[in-house]
Every structure is written in structure tokens, then in C-alpha cells.
Amino acid sequence: MLIKLYADNPSERELAKVVAALEHDEIIIYPTDSVYAFGCSIRSPRSIERLRRIKGKGETTCAVVLHDLSQAAEYCRVDNAAFRVLKRNLPGPFTFILPASTRMPDKALERRKTIGIRIPDNAIPRAIVEALGCPLLTTSVRDDGEEEYTTDPELIEERYGAEVALVIDGGVGQTVPTTVVDLTQGEPEVVRDGLGELN
Asked: For the chain, how long is the longest CA-to-CA vector?
């Protein structure tokens, strides 16, 4: 099902539908400040497993979408230097890799000790996470060489509608993914160049 949400003022009624789906172990597709992404609640082991199956990778690297920096301190170990980097660059089109805290469910980590975090510069995912009360486990819809299928919400719904509960139409998405930055070694290290310019 395709539902419309506006980044400048997400409808509470539509948000409630999204949250209800996530609380019932469903997967959604939603817009970010970069590419469209799959998302599910980190509290739902069943939907985490399904999400990995949909992506077709046994151990696909997933990130979590957070509402704000206070959630980052809850689910990750953030020292002062890392916090300063996060504060300068978020919300924005970045995925920052940090050591996970014990609050991060094992199922979300899949035997890893680190997790990528996102606070997108788009109010829709942040509003979803705030209403849900926990982070979303997320991975991009992007397939190499098939840009229109990953930027147009109607085409995304056509392709993945049978596998997910909802596709959120937040307008045309980007084709460039986030910049990935590793903050686990002290100095920030850019692992993948993407949309974000690190400050």
C-alpha cells in the first residue's frame, strides 16, 4: 500500500498507520535525505530476518535510524570526540559507524560489535522513530543500475509492494547513498563517499 507523507508536516493519522505496521512485525519502505530505504523495528526479530531475506544477503549490513543524538548515546558508545563529529554533521546524509551498546538487540547486530547510525535530514523517518519509540533497522532499496526503481515511490511500490506492508511516498528520492564514516578508531575515516560532505 502506498501512503503519502509530507516532510514539512507528517500527518499524525498516517504516521499512526506506519507505527501500527511496524509494531506488528511489518517492513516499510520510506524516504530519507538520500535514497529510499527498507525499515523495520529493532524490537522485531521476525521482521529483521525478513528484511535480510528481501535484500538477498545473509548478513546484509544494516544501519539504524535514530530520532536524535540522545538516542545515539542510548544505543551506541559515543565518546566526546565522536559526539562532536555527530553534532556537526547530523541530521544529514551520513551513516556513522560506532561501537554498539548493550541496548542494541543482538539480532540487529548479527554478530558484529559495531552499528551504523543515521539521523536523516528528512522529518519523515525521524517522526516515525519518535512515534515508534525505538530505532528502525534500515538498509537502502538502491540496486545498482536501476535508478528509477529506487527513486520513484510508485515504481518502488509496484516492485516491492507484495513484500512490505507500506511504501511511504515522500516525493522523488535521490540516487546517491549516504557518506559512510567510521568513528570506531578515534579519527573519522570515510569508508564510502556519498551525498554528505564531512564537517
From this structure: 45
pTM: predicted TM-score of the whole model, two decimal places:
0.93
CB atoms under 10 Å from CB of 145, counted, come to 5
If you compute the radius of gyration of the chain from its CA atoms, what whole number of angstroms results?
15
Which three cell numbers, joined as nine digits, stand for 81? 570526540
CB 172 within 8 A of CB 155: no
Residues 63 and 192 sit within 8 Å (Cβ to Cβ) = no
HEC letters along 56-80: CCCCCCCEEECCCHHHHHHHECCCH
Distances (CA, A) of 98 to 90, 101, 154, 157: 14, 9, 34, 32
Residue with cell 507484495: 162
What the chain holds in terms of domains, given with CATH numbers, is 2-192 (3.90.870.10)
The CA distance from 35 to 181, in Å, is 17
Q: Is the peptide bond before 120 cis (omega within 30 degrees of 0)?
A: no
Task: Tell me 100's DSSP state.
Answer: B
Scan for cell 526479530, then name that residue: 45
> Cα torsion for 166, 170, 178, 20, to the nearest 10°?
-30
- Summarize pLDDT for 50-78 with one digit per residue, the tens: 998 888 755 557 899 999 999 999 999 99
CB proximity list for 71: less than 8 A, separation 6 or greater:
129, 135
